[in-house]
Amino acid sequence: MRRIIDGVAYDTETATFIASGEADPDHLTGSQASWSLYRTRHGAWFEVVAGHDGVLEEFNPLTDDEARRFLEVNANSLLEKFFGRMPEAGQGKNVQERAFELLQSIERATRGSSAPVVIEELRDLHMTADEAKEAFHYLKGKGLIEAKFSIFYAARLAPAGHDAIQSQITARAAPVRQKAVAPDPIRAAPASPPELLTLRPGIWGINIDLKEAGRRIRQLWEKGRNRG
What we know:
Elements: E1 2-5, E2 8-11, E3 16-22, E4 34-39, E5 45-50, E6 56-62, H1 64-74, H2 79-83, H3 95-110, E7 117-118, H4 129-141, E8 145-146, E9 154-157, H5 159-173, H6 185-188, E10 199-202, E11 205-208, H7 210-227
Antiparallel strand pairs: 1-2, 3-4, 4-5, 5-6, 7-9, 8-9, 10-11
Helix pairs in contact: 3-4
């Protein structure tokens, strides 16, 4: 059976049947409703849905995430066969790190070329084959790589992938902002105006040194005249 959706053909005769689910697996209600998952020769997923009378009703193209959820519910044992080994609970924090490493490796391998690269050909990855597949699906689900090719696990960077790498480079190259230094209160303090009167001890107590006061007044007057 063949359907054309958005200018693309989905054909059950040439695609591979993967798994199916039923509305009434125990035959209690008589419903013949079912949904079947297929994968085309080029790796695209689609779902075929039959109604309660068993008559075909829908062809639905599926994303990788939707196909993965289909398998989680209807054929859990096949999930890792098509989507790689899943991380154990509590291990998910490492997926992003491996995905970025894979993204950088794909960028290096395809730099200057529009052809995709198969992840098995990447020799600079520090991860297992299952971890690389897990990272591959993470990147694909985030739209960071283009992976709809006739070869499984072949990819090249999507524009968003280039942007992600550039953003990381920019973040690492950003200069460290220097902490503002508070002004030295001693250095910043304004100079005290010169004293005009000088006090000194005398026989009658504290006396004013008139001679010194006159000398200082004369100095201030000369400075003011020079400025004028």
